[in-house]
Write a structure and sequence with these properties.
Number of strands: 19
Structural class: alpha+beta
Number of helices: 8
Largest sheet: 7 strands, antiparallel
Shape: rod-shaped
Length: about 500
């Protein structure tokens, strides 16, 4: 038998819904992350810039013009300029290379050669430092770092902001334009932007973790909602799985959701159509078999009377052949009737009861023993106590057909053995003969209706094993055709469900 190709596993409704919701939710999370980034980063940059501007204004407030017209910083001792600067709490920046060094006080300090160490702290004990420069509009530096770039961007309230690079260090600079006495002064403060980037990355990490947790919670709640919403469909699946194969009763519609109701209604319509067609077929075959029995019985009786009244040998031979044909026709009618009654749909779950198989084997052997002895066949049984769930007369018909098939194909003086019991926990019933056996190529075809294997004696109707197959299917059992344990015969094996 050609194996059917394996079908790919179809995606579930739950998987599809979850996939369709995951992509939009991921897109929304990305959009929310971008929006949160823009919402928090821009005000944070403004806060940094305001801190720079306050530092620049504080420096400008300490610059004064003397009587000689020269600018000086109030309170500065020779070689040192002390001033307290109000500050803002900012994350610590890395120190730049070169002659820019960190000071551990809150002053602007000049070395004896008047070369400024122009990093300053915004408040005592803080770790962040700034570059500063106090200069004239013509570029002459009064104090601070002479090379610090001056912001030339858009000015508002005499303040301008810009980005610059000084000694390979990226800076954010703020420039404040003030007038001291009658002299314009330009105060510039620069800050390393690296610590701004650190703050942004930390902020993005916090936002990403927060949005990720929210997405995970939404997905968990979504999956839970999908699972709850699909419970009616799962119950419908369980209802179909629990339904007996021979039952063609319609499915219940009450627990079915509205989206699936049309499908269930169509399925019920199909089940009713199949049931009606099956019942019509069974009724036809049953009626036909019953109608054939009466004339066949009468015909057989008339042939027996005719055989008793005829002395001619040729006529006797013809009558004998007619009697054989009538017997085969009656046997075929009986098997057609048995085949119709063996259909799984012909029985309700209430017809199935507990049956003692070993007792059934003894009853069948008793009814077939004379036929086996007439041909010198050794008919025996090797049975263990076995109980299965089934229909008694169907299993009786199954064993009758298996034994009839074995007797037909076993030569005179052969052996037939019936076995039943459990093997590896599986209940089984088998009939083994010492006949020619069945070739593996024909083991599937002999199950077909009206098929006769090669070498058949022509007396068989070709329905025996088809009836066995139908009865096994109605009991959820497996019908196997195997080689005999000894010799060249066949072994017909029925394996019942283990829970039977």
């Amino acid at each position: 038998m050609t194996e059917s190709p394996k079908l790919k596993r179809a995606p579930s409704i739950r998987g599809r819904l979850f996939g369709y919701l995951l992509l939009p939710l991921a897109a929304l999370m990305s959009l929310a992350f971008w929006a949160d980034h823009r919402t928090f980063v821009t005000p944070m940059y403004d806060t940094f810039d305001r801190a720079l501007s306050r530092a620049a204004i504080a420096i400008a407030a300490q610059v004064h013009q003397g009587n000689d017209g020269q600018l000086y910083v109030e309170g500065a001792a020779p070689g040192t300029l002390h001033m307290h600067l109000p500050g803002a709490h900012l994350p610590p920046p890395p120190l730049p290379d070169g002659d820019i060094t960190e000071r551990h006080d809150s002053s602007l300090r000049f070395e004896p050669d008047n070369r400024p160490l122009s990093w300053m702290r915004l408040y005592p004990g803080a770790r962040e430092t700034l570059l500063y420069r106090v200069s004239l509009p013509d570029g002459h530096t009064i104090a601070g770092d002479d090379g610090l770039p001056i912001a030339t961007g858009h000015e508002a309230d005499n303040l301008a902001y810009g980005n610059a690079t000084y000694k390979d260090v990226p800076l954010r600079v703020a420039t404040y334009h003030a007038v001291i006495g009658d002299t314009p002064v330009v105060v510039t403060v620069g800050e390393n932007v690296h610590h701004r980037d650190i703050v942004v990355r930390r902020l993005d990490s916090i936002i990403g973790v927060s949005d990720g947790i929210q997405l995970l919670l939404v997905l968990v709640l979504t999956l839970f909602g999908i699972t709850v919403a699909l419970r009616p469909i799962n119950k419908l699946r369980e209802q179909i799985a629990k339904q007996e194969p021979q039952s063609l009763q319609p499915l219940m519609l009450e627990p079915v959701p509205g989206e699936v109701r049309p499908l269930v209604e169509s399925l019920n319509t199909m089940l009713m159509t199949v049931r009606d067609a099956t019942l019509a077929q069974q009724h036809f075959i049953t009626n036909a078999a019953h109608q054939l029995r009466t004339p066949l019985t009468g015909l057989k009786a008339q042939l027996e009377v005719l055989a008793g009244e005829t002395q001619d040998a040729a006529q006797q031979e013809r009558i004998t052949r007619l009697q054989g044909s009538v017997d085969r026709l009656a046997h075929t009618a009986n098997q057609l009737l048995a085949l119709a009654r063996a259909e799984p749909s012909a029985h309700s779950p209430g017809d199935f009861v507990s049956i003692q198989i070993d007792a059934l084997v003894g009853a069948v052997i008793g009814s077939m023993l004379d036929r086996a002895l007439a041909r010198g066949i050794d008919l025996g049984a090797e049975c263990e106590p076995l109980q299965v769930h089934g229909v008694y007369w169907l299993l009786h018909e199954l064993l009758i057909n298996l034994l009839d098939n074995a007797i037909r194909h076993t030569p005179d003086g052969g052996n037939i053995t019936i076995r039943c019991g459990r093997q590896n926990g599986t209940p089984y019933l088998e009939v083994e003969d010492s006949g020619p056996g069945i070739a593996p190529a024909e083991r599937e075809r002999v199950r077909e209706r009206f098929y006769r294997a090669a070498g058949s004696d022509g007396q068989s109707s070709g329905l025996g094993l088809a009836i066995v197959e139908e009865i096994a299917r109605s009991h959820r059992a497996h019908f196997k055709i195997l080689d005999a344990l000894e010799g060249t015969g066949a072994r017909m094996r029925i394996e019942f469900p283990s829970h039977g």
